[in-house]
Amino acid sequence: MPGTQGASARGGWRRWVMDTRPLRHPAYRRLWSSTTVTAVGSQLTAVAVPKQVYDITGSSAWVGYASIAGLVPLVVFALWGGAVADSVDRRKLMLVTNVGLAVTALLLWAQAFAGGRSVALLMVLLAAQQAFWGMNAPARSASIARLVPASELPAANALGSTVMQTGQIVGPLLAGVLIPVIGLGELYLIDAIALCATVWAVWRLPALPPLSDGRVRRAGWREVVDGFRYITGHRILLLSFLADIVAMVFGMPRALFPQLAATTYGGWGSGFALGLLYAAIPIGAVAGGLVSGTFSRARRHGLMVIVAVVAWGAAITGFGLSASLWWAAGFLALAGVADMVSMVFRGAILQSVATDDMRGRMQGVFTVVVAGGPRLADLFHGTAGSALGTRPAVTAGGLLVVATMLGLAVAVPAFRRYRAV
Fold this sequence. Notes:
By secondary structure, this protein is mainly alpha-helical. 80% of the residues lie in helices and 0% in strands. It contains 17 helices and no strands. α2 packs antiparallel against α6, α4 runs parallel beside α6 and α7 packs antiparallel against α12.
């Protein structure tokens, strides 16, 4: 029976490695491929903006203020964009917003090419970019549940997250190499070119109109408010959002990376240290994604989120206590593994609990939480780092994550008991 044993062995391996079943569905494969194209380009811009702000001002606090400049449009347009995604063809919405993102990247390149040193202009362009991204993300995420079976949602989320996290490894490291060679401004241009390829990939998606139920779909602020009422009526959804807010606001110290790279770990060269710090969390996340086959078998999604957030806080605490660059990178990588687990199961909870007519609005709130939390963290850690010092601010934030998440788990037992259908 050697053949049977071989098949069994391969089956055993497949239980551990990344579950690629969602890629069998052509529409999902096209959506996924559109994220692979921009995964690196978007991260070049994500490094270039704070680097340019720090070069102009020499202040980590200004890096935090610049990030907050993008928060208001992100919140407004992600919430409204979620309502729009529930009322129009989601493919068309993704096309329009991806074109807007490409134009914004070109304008960022133009100001850098012209030698601009205006933080105010950078903030305006960043705000525009975040507005388009806020409109795009809910439509993209809400489409996934229409493209794959419910049983494959954790696998689909793991595939998408792994690609994005891979971009967050390659992008920052590539930025560190390219800035001294071609200059900072050209990073924006590369992002713009990548976004043009994404527009083509989204163009090839099938139409994704609202499911017909005889109702006229609107996309006003009344519908946005209805989305929040929906969340408050579903404690599982509410806790999944709170878990990410806790992890990101208290435990994402990226605003301090430029200062840490230039001072605490400056002996390695600020460019190398900065690239490694930005890349370490995604490296861990990709490592978690490569064994995401285990995610498809987990049913206690709430408990998985709790464990992952506590592990994130513990790893960030270790990062704050690390005087060595390599120990710091190692703890950030462990945090990345925890972040991947949390991201996959929070996404699966949202996509399975919410009905299709609410998924856009739920993904709008999800986008605000996922992207807005780190921006509040930039302000929190930027100001705390300037007042207390970088490492004490990071350590205190990690400990707050652990304590707060454990408190929520005790206060709401239904969340830790939640099982996938």
